[in-house]
């Protein structure tokens, strides 16, 4: 009986951890600073090289991302921030500051709905 309890406890603990992470993502990701940190963190992982990032950083020109890399990056952000970014909005984004503002507005729209 005791041997069966350990896997069940681990499963419950994993479910609680996942729920806490979802809750933290929903509450933490609404401010510009939180969104900025997630964007910068995702970019550092994606680029795998040191890079200076700011709101004025141009996504394609300064970071050298091609359209496929931009789409992969956006999909990562959508997953991390639990939003969906329409293609027409993506086309309007040039800098990381534009991206921060767009994601903030999408999250605000989703919260209001």
Total helices: the number is: 5
Q: Biggest sheet: strands, sense, closure?
A: none
CATH topology of the largest domain: Non-ribosomal Peptide Synthetase Peptidyl Carrier Protein, Chain A
The overall pLDDT average reads 81
Structural domain count: 2
Shape-level CATH architecture of the largest domain: Orthogonal Bundle
Q: What's the helical proportion of residues?
A: over 70%
CATH level-1 class of the largest domain: Mainly Alpha
Through-space gap between termini: 48 Å
Task: Classify the secondary structure makeup into a structural class.
Answer: mainly alpha
Uncertain ranges:
23-29
Number of strands: 0
User: Outline, from the CA principal axes?
Assistant: globular
Strand content: under 5%
Following the backbone from N to C, one meets helices and strands in this order, namely HHHHH
Rg value:
18 Å
The H-level CATH homologous superfamily of the largest domain, spelled out, is: ACP-like
Descriptive account of the structure:
This protein is mainly α and 113 residues long. The protein has 2 domains: 1-28; 31-112, ACP-like (Non-ribosomal Peptide Synthetase Peptidyl Carrier Protein, Chain A, Orthogonal Bundle), CATH 1.10.1200. The protein is built from 5 helices and no strands. It has helices at 2-28, 32-47, 67-81, 87-92, 96-112. The radius of gyration is 18 Å and the shape is globular. The N and C termini lie far apart (48 Å).
Features of the shown structure:
5 helices, globular, 113 residues, Non-ribosomal Peptide Synthetase Peptidyl Carrier Protein, Chain A, 0% strand, 72% helix, mainly alpha
């Amino acid at each position: 009986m005791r041997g069966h309890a350990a896997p069940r406890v681990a499963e419950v603990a994993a479910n609680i951890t996942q729920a806490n992470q979802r809750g933290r993502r929903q509450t933490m990701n609404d401010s510009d600073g939180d969104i900025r940190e997630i964007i910068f963190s995702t970019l550092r992982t994606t680029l795998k090289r040191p890079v200076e990032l700011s709101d004025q950083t141009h996504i394609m020109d300064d970071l050298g991302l091609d359209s496929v890399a931009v789409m992969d990056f956006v999909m990562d952000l959508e997953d991390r921030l639990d939003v969906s970014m329409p293609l027409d909005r993506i086309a309007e984004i040039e800098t990381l500051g534009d991206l921060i503002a767009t994601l903030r507005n999408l999250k605000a729209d989703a919260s209001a709905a």
